[in-house]
Amino acid sequence: MYLGIDLGTSAIKAVLIDATGKVRATASHALAVSNPQPRWSEQDPHAWWTAAQAAIEQVLAGAGREGISPRQIAGIGLSGQMHGATVLDKADRVLRPAILWNDGRCDAQCREIESWPGFQEITGNLAMPGFTAPKLLWLREHEPAVFERIAKVLLPKDYLRLGLTGEYATDVSDAAGTLWLNVAERRWSKRMLEATGLSLDAMPTVYEGNAVTGYLSQALADRWGMQRVPVAAGGGDNAAGAVGVGIVRHKQAMLSLGTSGVYFAVSDGYLARPEQAVHSFCHALPGTWHLMSVMLSAASCLDFTAGLSGYGSVATMLADAEQAGMRHDGPVFLPYLSGERTPHNDVHACGAFTGLRADTSRTDLANATLEGVGLGLLDGIEAVDAAGLHADDITVIGGGSRSAYWTQMLADIIGRPLTLRAGGEVGAALGAARLAHLAAEPGATLADVCEMPEVTAVCQPNLSRHAYYREHRQPKFRALYSQLAGVYRVEGAV
């Protein structure tokens, strides 16, 4: 048995799989996000650790009801939200709440990083407020007393690793999102660290995702009735999610419909396109990289509109939207509720409904939201295509994939088949468990462990609908962002 733990933004998930890859037990524990100031997003790392222990104990209890003993577990893997800055002192005490991936406070620090000679050649990425390095520059400027006490900087999942094993370690896929990694060479850049006021001593050791980074502590092994099993390096949430659905080979791709929206395409070599805010990261497996487009608000836009429109739930809103259907002259929604990454890299971007009329209904707002997220995702997919990595078939994962109506709309907007597979909703935790399997069993191969789960549905694009989106809605969507972007920047500067 192999245990995967995924530290998300809204919850920690745990999944237990057997040697065949079958999911045998799952559990989750909710997390809260703090927004103490506009554009700030933080969490308490102690809450991560408390929730992780609860999720592990829940999954062990569920497995026990199926006759599975904790001593059958042979390895643990970790995945988690990327980019978060968890800062510790010399005694491993947390110095302040972790600054999260969707925090937008450090755009000034990003401009500073962009001015550093050779920055993009080393990192393969633009400097974005969500990334880790600008957060540390912000701390150095605004909380110098905290910065001076920093002994270690850990990414969120790697704080859990410290609690599980006592080791400071990370994996290449998560490290690539810090702006401290030389992505092509898969190692820390001393030059980038020193420019941020840090040294290699402050960094965890970098491993490939399927490598062993340490072993479960004796105290926790005794508490949970487990052996001192190896803990794999694991992966950032998107890389682990890709492993979970078998997206591990060149030109395979997936679309993740979670709080954020992510398009992830695998490459067998290093590629980059920073001018369109495409993320160029290492994959969690040796010898592979990936390009990724990210929109900060995807399925979270549905929650926003459901609340704004008085729907009791997103499910009710989706059913209402499907029954009403989409008007050809309906409003347009810009999904930039938390700023945006690909392709705009605009921390001041805001959401908007435009084209409202006296007869606009809440179902029109619902359909506009679904369409607006889809058009934002299309922008990101086309940016990855322009980097030289085109995928003809895309696997869809995440909570948003539960809606057949929305998935079909997305296929029509994108113009490519969207494939749903078993296990897509626990992809990151499943991927972490698969990486644990690879780490704990040296002879295991990708063919053995990372096969693609069975297809549950395929949404083929309606070509006439795709032409409509391309010719009418996409140009309007893009023009509206361009027209309003100046307003956002002025407001953001006040």
CATH superfamily of the largest domain: ATPase, nucleotide binding domain
The N- and C-terminal alpha carbons lie at a distance of 55 Å
Determine the fraction of residues in helical runs and give it as a percent range.
Answer: 25-40%
Write down the overall mean pLDDT. Answer: 94
The count of helical stretches stands at 17
What fraction strand?
15-25%
**CATH fold group of the largest domain:** Nucleotidyltransferase, domain 5
GO molecular function: D-xylulokinase activity
Function: Catalyzes the phosphorylation of D-xylulose to D-xylulose 5-phosphate.
Site (Important for activity): 6
Enzyme class: transferase
Give the helix/strand layout:
Layout (H helix, E strand, L loop, with lengths): L1 E6 L3 E7 L5 E8 L11 E2 L1 H21 L9 E6 L5 E3 L9 E2 L7 H8 L4 H5 L8 H11 L1 H5 L3 E3 L1 H10 L3 E3 H4 L5 E2 L4 E2 L1 H6 L9 E3 L4 E4 L2 H7 L5 E3 L2 E2 H8 L8 E5 L3 E7 L11 E4 L6 E7 L3 H10 L5 H11 L7 E3 L17 E3 L7 H25 L7 E4 L6 H11 L3 E4 L5 H14 L5 H4 L5 E5 L3 H31 L1
Parallel strand pairs: 1-5, 5-15, 9-12, 16-22, 22-23
Antiparallel strand pairs: 1-2, 2-3, 4-7, 6-8, 10-11, 13-14, 16-17, 17-19, 18-19, 20-21, 23-24
Helix pairs in contact: 1-6, 2-4, 10-15, 11-13, 12-13, 13-14, 14-17
